[in-house]
Amino acid sequence: MSEGFHRIFSTFFDPGMIVQALPEVLTVGLPNTLLLSLFASAIGIALGLLVAAGLLSGYTSVRLPCRGYVDILRGLPHILTVYLIGQGLPLAGLAIFGGNTYGYAALAIGLIESAYFAEIFRAGFQSVERGQVEAARSTGMTRLQTMRHIIIPQGARRVLPPLTGQFILVIKATSLVYLLGLTASQREMFAIAQDAAINNANLSPLTAAGLVYLALTIPTTYAVNAWDRRIRGARSTHAVEGD
After folding, report:
1. For residues 8 and 51, what is the distance between their CA atoms, to the nearest angstrom?
2. Cα within 13 Å of Cα(236), Cβ side
């Protein structure tokens, strides 16, 4: 029993291996992970806003393609989408980022996340009180002006907690871009840990990366949950005062 436990412990939690892996994970992998997450989130939010507006369109010819976009990207395995975008576009001759694999990685994750951001924005926009929308339309605002000046500003504020929560998922999704063969200086945390694990025939470097992921995601998750409860509480108070 003790021998089996020692073998398991040394395979996953070898202190020397963890300490050896952490410097590169923190100095190279962590900045690349965060930078890739920011780029992907920027793409996802920009596209998500457009798709969310399309989902709320009164025109079927606009609404249905947007719904198909969301359903497809949410339905496909993330790893498949990353591979199709990151490897497929250059193979198809659409080398929009040249030989910069980092750009394809950000685009792939950004496209995936745009479908989730779109649903978050759609829910936020639909939560805006109908009376405000009708009041705006009665003043002569067009549907587009109402969306721009009334629905988007209020809806965007209401979805800040879930947007932040989705960013946590983006951080974790960056681990999939190892498929695209990033250069040594572009590798994110998982790629660095995986290389070290293969070279040492030991999974402790992956544990080191896991610890850094947890240090990022767990505190952020609790902060987002507290923020969301605070916003919901403020809305409930305003609703009671309004009554």
Report:
1. 47
2. 6
b/e 56-77 (16+ beta carbons within 10 angstroms → b):
bbeeeeeeeebeebbeebeeee
> Which of 80-94, 146-160, 193-207 shows the highest mean pLDDT?
193-207
Q: SS3 of 224, please?
A: helix
Residue 231 confidence (pLDDT): 67
b or e along 78-113 (b: 16 or more beta carbons within 10 Å of the residue's beta carbon)? beebbbebbbebbeeeeeebeeebbbbbbbbbbbbb
Mean pLDDT over the full length of the chain = 85
Helix, strand, or coil (residue 201): coil
Distance CA 55, CA 62 (A): 8
pLDDT band at 240 (very low <50, low <70, confident <90, very high): very low
Both structure tokens of 96: 């929009």
The domains of the chain, with CATH numbers, are 2-176+185-242 (1.10.3720.10)
By the 8 A CB rule, do 97 and 103 touch? yes
Q: Among 126, 113, 128, which residue's Cα sits nearest to residue 48?
A: 113
Query: Which residues, other chains included, contact 181 with Cβ-Cβ below 8 Å and sequence gap of 6+?
Result: 101
In the 8-state DSSP scheme, what is residue 14?
Answer: -
